[in-house]
């Protein structure tokens, strides 16, 4: 691995295509890591693992460097899914002087189909070429601002790593009395010691496996032992709580409701603007309505329900289930066109509706029968409902916000019952609990409360989630709320105007548990929870897609105050999970979440191709669902949500997860909420950020941009940051990203517009190179969408037009139109003076 440079300027553009620095998830947000504190974890290697790294009597030759690089790159690949990591290599054998220019860049191409030996051989070849061309690589491409470098150090005996370097991680191999010792240095301001020790164990396990099974491809080499059992789930248990009886193999939802109603006949079951119902009344009224519905729908049919967010929706659901039909909820806020597509796709037989919506139902019906859910009198006859098979469909829930053909998840009575009982057991629901129904019945979030509450003896109260925050808190207090289940967006609305410290809010004093789901929740949400709710209450964060309602849950603890986001936890009872790499092969630390459970939905209604892509049955006969959610495993085995596969952005060849940049923005003291999207007008190469204020004063956009530039790589700094009074919210209560306004491409103020012919000419060059229509004279080239290749293209165009050769290092100090114009002016003055 020599280091003689070549001046072939075409080497790195092709070499860096698709490559990326390793951006590891940290235990502590970078924003709070005020200083670099290096610590070291060590482990001795023996047997075959040590033999893979070279003979015992050397300090590391080229083969050792390639083997160590390969092992480290594979571990980093499993942790980040970066297939072409750029790693710094500090290769010093005995007698070599200490480096003066820092580690040299090496790109390692991880090919999962190769064996370890084959990958080492290829790494030795490619790393040698990289080192010969190292002098040609601009430093900005190797070390993004704010991200430490991952590097490998091969040291002579007794030598230490460069004390002035500040990499996130540095891996060194030392020989001590003939024993190979791996030393993982880490920034203790970012990583817990347990995390560093965990990664070091991964390296040892990988090397051990590669030595023991040399014929295995890299993807099949283990990093982890089998994960141990999840920690004991121990939320606060209310006095008198009794576990619910498990679901019988042939038990349907109506059967369980009737049993609960018989046991708790006089307890309150349901309330809302449309009336109050005891369990006995709920059971009787829904049975009467079911007999009415059987004249138009029944077993084997689909029944649409058009209801406002009130008790009619709950009554309609149970009436449809008792009739034997699968219900298809319709949100009256949706346009007729979408509702008509849902009706056609579901092939519904009839539409049941709130009496006030009968007219609209008739317009939508197009020949289908309309059945208004008129009130049931106290003397109405309620004969026993006909039995319903446990395996029959319970509902079709259509995905929200989709375009074109709607997609519906089909779920059975038995699976819904299992999910409801698992949810009720996890959060200890019982007759003493009062739950607000905040989610509309058209969404999966409502399933957890609608069924979990009414099958456990708790009372359900339909509450408008869009009330102003003070009125919403008063409403929760009026019903004596004990459990709140909502999205993080709605949670922030509920408590966002409350002080971040002080005594708990009186209106929330009866709440014993808050359950979050549907979006990423962070430590700021946990802090808000601790300030607003009683000290003996609990916060649960989780993940449960429509295809498998209750999948993962995490009981938050004080340790979560140091992390950027709250974990989504461990699998619920009856659920297993797998992580998959981009090719669909099992992996261990980072990948797409696959849920394995008998409770997974049957598939997507009448969409066999979409069902085949997302669902399947394993060799053990258990169904699985590929969620499209990306997750990362922590050392304690819990999972952290890392975004959606379909939300990942690619900017200048770098793959980005918007959630990471949003978390960085939310950590700023002036920002309450943050959202990030790609600007489709630029082909997604520019990032647009949106924030709301956390104080009475709006965030300073220039300050935020400067702040992000200090902690993120330049390609991750948004092109525009827009301050909004509030975020648009979709029907599910989640952020509606499609409704975020696109900012203008023009400069933000007249002072930022080109003022002279030279400034205008330079700005025109920038626009041509960056693919934008206008640029401000003080805007950063990098923030506006530039990268090292575009910098070279731009400087070349300036040289061709003005005859001025601006050094790259000078431009990077102040990458603006104004600075380039000044450099041109200084050159002209020098020419004239000569």
UniProtKB/TrEMBL annotation:
Domain of life: Bacteria
Keywords assigned: Phosphopantetheine, Phosphoprotein
Pfam families for the chain: AMP-binding, AMP-binding_C, PP-binding
Domain Carrier: 753-828
Keyword Phosphoprotein listed: yes
Residue runs in coiled coils: none
SMART domains: PKS_PP
NCBIfam families: AA-adenyl-dom (TIGR01733)
The protein, known as: Amino acid adenylation domain-containing protein
Phylogenetic classification of the source organism: Bacteria, Bacillati, Actinomycetota, Actinomycetes, Kitasatosporales
């Amino acid at each position: 691995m020599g280091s003689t440079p070549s001046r072939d300027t075409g080497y790195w553009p092709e070499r860096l295509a698709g490559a990326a620095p390793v951006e590891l998830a940290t235990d502590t947000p970078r924003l709070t890591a005020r200083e670099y504190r290096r610590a070291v974890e060590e482990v001795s290697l023996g047997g075959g693992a040590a033999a893979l790294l070279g003979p015992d009597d050397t300090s590391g030759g080229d083969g050792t460097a390639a083997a160590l690089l390969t092992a480290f790159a594979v571990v980093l690949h499993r942790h980040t899914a970066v297939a072409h990591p750029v790693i710094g290599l500090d290769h010093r054998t005995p007698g070599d002087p200490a480096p003066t220019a820092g580690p040299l860049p090496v790109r390692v191409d991880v090919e999962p189909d190769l064996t370890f030996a084959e990958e080492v051989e290829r790494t030795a070849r490619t790393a040698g070429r990289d080192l010969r061309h190292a002098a040609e690589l601009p430093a900005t491409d190797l070390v993004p601002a704010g991200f430490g470098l991952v590097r490998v150090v091969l040291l002579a005996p007794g030598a230490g790593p460069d004390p002035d370097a500040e990499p996130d991680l540095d891996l060194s191999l030392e020989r001590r009395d003939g024993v190979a010792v791996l030393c993982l240095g880490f920034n203790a301001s970012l990583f817990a010691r347990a995390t560093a020790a965990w990664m070091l164990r991964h390296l040892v396990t990988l090397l051990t496996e590669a030595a023991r099974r040399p014929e295995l491809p890299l993807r099949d080499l283990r990093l982890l032992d089998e994960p141990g059992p999840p920690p004991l789930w121990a939320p606060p248990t209310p006095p008198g709580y009794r576990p619910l009886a498990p679901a019988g193999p042939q038990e349907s939802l109506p059967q369980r409701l009737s049993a609960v109603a018989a046991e708790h006949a006089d307890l309150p079951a349901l309330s809302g603007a449309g009336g109050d119902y005891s369990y006995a009344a709920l059971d009787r009224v829904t049975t009467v309505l079911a007999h009415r519905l059987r004249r138009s729908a029944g077993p084997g049919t689909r029944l649409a329900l058009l209801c406002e967010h009130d008790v009619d929706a709950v009554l309609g659901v149970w009436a449809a289930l008792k009739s034997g039909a699968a219900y298809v909820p319709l949100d009256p806020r949706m346009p007729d066109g979408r509702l008509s597509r849902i009706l056609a796709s579901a092939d519904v037989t009839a539409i049941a509706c709130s009496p006030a919506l009968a007219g609209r139902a008739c317009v939508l019906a197009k020949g289908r029968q309309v059945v208004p859910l008129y009130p049931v009198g106290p003397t109405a006859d309620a004969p026993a409902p006909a039995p319903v098979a446990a395996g029959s469909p319970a509902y079709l829930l259509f995905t929200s916000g989709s375009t074109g053909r709607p997609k519906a998840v089909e779920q059975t009575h038995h699976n819904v019952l299992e999910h409801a009982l698992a949810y009720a057991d996890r959060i200890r629901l019982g007759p003493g609990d009062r739950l607000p129904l905040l989610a509309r019945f058209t969404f999966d979030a409502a399933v957890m409360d609608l069924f979990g509450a009414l099958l456990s003896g708790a009372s359900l109260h339909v509450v408008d989630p869009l009330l102003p925050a003070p009125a919403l808190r008063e409403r929760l207090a009026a019903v004596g709320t004990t459990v709140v289940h909502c999205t993080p967006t709605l949670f922030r609305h509920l408590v966002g105007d409350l002080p971040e410290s002080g005594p708990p809010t009186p209106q929330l004093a009866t709440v014993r548990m808050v359950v979050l789901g549907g979006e990423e929740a962070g430590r700021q949400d946990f802090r808000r929870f601790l300030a607003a709710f009683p000290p003996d209450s609990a916060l649960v964060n989780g993940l449960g897609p429509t295809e498998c309602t209750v999948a993962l849950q995490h009981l938050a603890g004080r340790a979560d105050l140091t992390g950027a986001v709250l974990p989504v936890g461990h699998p619920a009872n009856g659920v297993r999970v797998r992580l998959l790499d981009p090719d669909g092969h099992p992996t261990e630390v980072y990948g797409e979440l696959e849920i394995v459970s008998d409770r997974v939905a049957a598939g997507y209604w009448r969409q066999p191709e979409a069902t085949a892509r997302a669902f399947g049955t394993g060799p053990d006969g258990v169904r699985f669902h590929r969620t499209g959610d990306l997750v990362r495993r922590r050392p304690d085995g819990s999972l952290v949500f890392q975004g959606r596969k379909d939300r990942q952005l690619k900017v200048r060849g770098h793959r980005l997860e918007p959630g990471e940049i949003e978390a960085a923005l939310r950590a700023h003291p002036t920002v309450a909420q943050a959202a990030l999207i790609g600007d489709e007008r630029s082909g997604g190469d520019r990032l647009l950020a949106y924030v709301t204020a956390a104080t009475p004063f709006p965030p300073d956009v220039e300050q935020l941009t400067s702040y992000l530039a200090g902690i993120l790589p330049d390609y991750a700094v948004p092109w525009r940051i827009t301050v909004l009074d509030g975020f648009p919210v979709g029907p599910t209560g989640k952020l509606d990203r499609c409704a975020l306004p696109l900012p203008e491409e023009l400069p933000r103020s007249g002072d930022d517009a080109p003022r002279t012919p030279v400034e205008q000419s330079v700005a025109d060059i920038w626009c041509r190179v960056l693919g934008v229509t206008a640029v401000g004279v003080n805007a950063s080239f990098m923030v506006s969408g530039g990268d090292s290749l575009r910098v070279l293209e731009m400087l070349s165009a300036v040289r061709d037009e003005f005859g001025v050769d601006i050094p790259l290092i000078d431009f990077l100090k102040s990458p603006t139109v104004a600075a380039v114009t000044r450099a041109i002016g200084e050159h002209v003055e020098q020419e004239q003076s000569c």
